[in-house]
Design brief:
three-stranded parallel β-sheet; TIM Barrel; 10 helices; binds fe (ii) ion
């Protein structure tokens, strides 16, 4: 399987605290059947001021440590970009690490606040789409406005935005309402990918296997494979082409 949203790069956000934890997380991912993983550290101005150079440096260190430890996990890096006007400057300046490509457009992993969909958010997503950058909305099932009314997502999907559902939301880790919302998004064809959003080895691990098995039961093996393997790969394959 392919994990396209997680915080395994050590020491640059609220994910893996150090290289030891990052390596332990990688071992968990491999044991779960993950072969390729795109690390997506937060880019959140004022909180996690990561830029492309910092992320690339952390990736180089992580790749070297994985090789030294003999862990067979292919890693690349992009970012989870916080909703805000800075996205516009970053996108036009070409300084926003993209998750990959879909239908000839770039894909940007975009995070809304967990409490709400910001007023006017459709304008920003539309602005990006006009510039051939498709926002992939991170974990919509954990956004309070969407949990309360899943139709709040419709405008974004009609624009062409992609969505990523969290594996551990499907297995109930974020509560029953979030789980029901995640299932609803999958059953109504409003989910494009499942990813771990892993942060640590205690309660936010990089595992997709249990969620895939649940989607298998919920919506069938074809949907499970599309969400955990085929569609994520289609988006991020370019990161791994050279390697
Ligand atoms: Fe995340």
């Amino acid at each position: 399987m392919i994990d396209i949203h997680n915080h395994l790069l050590p020491g640059i956000d609220d994910g893996a605290a150090d290289m030891d934890e990052a390596l332990a997380l990688a071992r968990l991912a491999v044991a779960d059947g993950i072969t390729h993983l795109v690390c997506t550290p937060h880019m959140h101005p004022g909180l996690y001021d990561n830029d492309r150079a910092a992320i690339e440096a952390a990736l180089a260190n992580y790749r070297a440590a994985l090789a030294e430890a003999g862990i067979a996990l292919e890693v690349a890096a992009a970012a989870e970009v916080r909703f805000g006007l800075e996205v516009m400057t970053g996108a036009t300046g070409g300084d926003m690490p993209l998750l990959g490509e879909w239908a000839g457009c770039g894909v940007l992993l975009l995070e809304f606040p967990h409490t709400e969909i910001p007023f006017g958010a459709e304008r920003l997503t539309g602005w990006l789409i006009d510039r051939d950058i498709l926002p992939m909305i991170a974990h919509p099932e954990r956004n309070r406005d969407i949990v309360n009314d899943p139709h709040r997502l419709t405008a974004f999907i009609e624009q062409g935005c992609l969505t990523q559902v969290t594996a551990s939301a499907l297995t109930g880790q974020f509560g029953e309402r979030t789980q029901r919302c995640a299932e609803h998004l999958i059953l109504t064809g409003q989910a494009n990918c499942i990813a771990s959003d892993a942060h640590n080895i205690t309660n936010r691990v990089p595992c997709l296997g249990r969620a895939r098995a649940q989607v298998d039961e919920l919506a069938g093996a074809e949907v499970a494979q599309a969400l955990c393997l085929d569609q994520p790969w289609q988006i991020v394959a370019g990161h791994f082409a050279a390697g």
